[in-house]
Amino acid sequence: MKPKLSVTLCGIKLDNPTVLASGIIGNTGELLKRAGDEGAGAVTTKSISLEPWDGHPSPNVVELEKGLLNAMGLPNPGAEDFVEEINIAKQGDAPVIASIVESTIQGYADVISILESSEPHMYELNASCPNVKGGQDISRSPELAGKLVEKACGVTNAPISFKISPDAGKLADVARAVDESGASAITAVNTLPAKAIDSKANLPVLYNKIGGLSGDLLRPIALRCVSEISDAVEIPIIGTGGVSTGQHAAEMISSGARAVGIGTAVWHHGVGVFKKVSNELSSIMEKKGFESVGDIEHGI
């Protein structure tokens, strides 16, 4: 009998544990719908702010040998315009997670209040983006992180996931703070602040100078963070960072993740990566005699 790939995340059933991570092809409802139809267990929107954000000028993406460095600056059309995109995305096969970003705690709550009419299945609080001013301040402070989650939970009954930074110095403390404040999950991790230099010009490649590192280079760090958070709290974790194969997904789940975010691999390989990862994960489980994804937690 084929292994069971479905998982339950915050009371939401996913056909498989793969999740389209925020920031990759999540800027329109049709693209989100397509990712779900092509095999993603859930899909996450690009981060949505109250008013439109233009993002950073080019160059804002650098392709590395084993990763990606981006400083997009979270461009998006604003909450009012994204309501319809979420409605379109929900016509697809996968639950929709709305990613939220703002410059103040009240701003996050205001965005959620606007998006409530579209009833996303879940919200993700992006309080850890490394390429916008002050983007990581909340994620590095247990007190601020807890206040943000408490405020967000006050304006919605939908589950809330807090997206955490890989370089939050008090990772376990932040995880415990958001758990105690009402978070239903933690997304671990966001990209890591990094820099690339043009050797000929001896200048930063990115207009913003600093960008967020993702892909293979981030995976060992993400695995460590997921393990540390899993030891600190019992709420589910969406393990994100450098996953592009079934083996990577299995490693993330065995480290404590309930679901697995995939982003940079979609950039490189397209939406077909979701079925690829799921099929490879199923094969690994079958060889190990695992009946469900939960069995992976006991070793791969």
Automatic annotation (TrEMBL):
Pathway: Pyrimidine metabolism; UMP biosynthesis via de novo pathway. Residues 5-285 form the Dihydroorotate dehydrogenase catalytic domain. It catalyses: (S)-dihydroorotate + A = orotate + AH2. Substrate binds at residues 46, 70-74, 126, 190-191. It comes from the Archaea. Binds 1 FMN per subunit. Pfam families: DHO_dh (PF01180). PROSITE patterns: DHODEHASE_2. InterPro entries: Aldolase_TIM (IPR013785), DHO_dehydrogenase (IPR050074), DHOD_1B (IPR033888), Dihydroorotate_DH_1 (IPR024920), Dihydroorotate_DH_1_2 (IPR012135), Dihydroorotate_DH_cat (IPR005720), Dihydroorotate_DH_CS (IPR001295), Dihydroorotate_DH_I (IPR049622). Its EC number is 1.3.-.-. One of its GO terms (biological process) is 'de novo' pyrimidine nucleobase biosynthetic process. It is found in: Cytoplasm. It is an enzyme of class 1 (oxidoreductase). One of its GO terms (molecular function) is dihydroorotate dehydrogenase activity. Its cofactor is FMN. The keyword Flavoprotein applies. One of its GO terms (cellular component) is cytoplasm. Belongs to the dihydroorotate dehydrogenase family. Type 1 subfamily. Catalyzes the conversion of dihydroorotate to orotate. This is Dihydroorotate dehydrogenase. It comes from Candidatus Undinarchaeum marinum. The gene is pyrD.
